[in-house]
Amino acid sequence: MKAIVQEEYGSSEVLRVGEVDRPKVGDGEVLIRVHAAGVDPGVWHLMAGLPYFLRLMGYGLRAPKTRVPGNDFSGRVETVGKEVTQFQPGDDVFGLCKGCFAEYACAREDKIAPKPSNLTFEQAAAVPTSALTALQALRDKGEVAAGQRVLIIGASGGVGTFAVQLAKVFGAEVTGVCSTPKLDLVRSIGADHVVDYTREDIAQTGERYDVILDTAGNRSLANLRGALTPRGTLVIVGGEEGGKWLAGTDRQLRAAVLSPFVSQRLRSFVAAARLEDLEFLKGLLESGKLTPVIDRTYSLSEAPEAIRYLMGGHARGKLVLTV
Q1: What secondary structure letter does DSSP report for 13?
Q2: CA dihedral in degrees (128, 129, 135, 141; nearest 10)?
Q3: With contact defined as beta carbons under 8 Å apart, do 245 and 78 qualify?
Q4: Using one digit for the tens of pLDDT, what is the confidence trace for 291-316?
Q5: N or C: which end of the chain has fewer CB within 10 A?
Q6: 158-197: b or e for each residue (b if 16 or more CB lie within 10 Å)?
Q7: Which domains can be identified in the chain, with CATH numbers?
Q8: Chain centroid to CA 239: how far?
């Protein structure tokens, strides 16, 4: 089968289209004929092997253990393992697995859900990692409640576009932060207010927020705390700034150390692939309360170009590969 393959860490130039064996389905797995795959910053991190601590976490010290990248997918069930009870061949599904930048991929039964009936395969592939991250950041870490004022930094990105919509679902008053060309997009997905970060500093506007979700990763803790209410909550997701060893995670570590000593709650986390959350998102998608925002679609062979575009900071919402 055709797949995107990498044999070493590096830039997008290490990716190539190759022929690999179709994966063998395990007892608790399903084999998926992949129709579309989502592109997110996590793909870049694992492609580049950065920050270095990722390599120490079992992804491969000198070269990636998983030759085929990709985490988010949508497609059709081809075959099922003998222990699988919830799916059968022909079912349309979406979810998470390793190696989905390929014609076929294997996924665990508890990491996939039926594809929302009103979404295309491309739209469904844009959902899993980014929407799960936004959901768990706002609901579980931010504990967003109706009537609260919520600030989404990076509101036009993959996580941000879902976060704006989810915060509205939870009844919050939402302010989105983005650059000038993306203001209209953020308004169109439900933000009550927008801030152009090229013209305004959130800590200097005089506005204070109950919850801040920072997906951009380039503001200091002091700057972020300056825009929080005295007992507000800051949730930090990811980070693209900093050195090769820790990248933006050093800011998250500082937040964890500081949080016990201040009245504000400073939190960070890594999203978990929970089936119940994927099913919750499916319900919101089918009801029309949540809609994926897709900037561009690429063919499988254009994966390197898609990753370069994403990491250039140009994307409005999600990028998707069609397979």
Answers
A1: G
A2: 150
A3: no
A4: 999 999 999 999 999 999 998 888 99
A5: N
A6: bbbbbbbbbbbbbebbbbbbbeeebbebbbebbbeebbeb
A7: 2-127+292-322 (3.90.180.10), 130-268 (3.40.50.720)
A8: 12
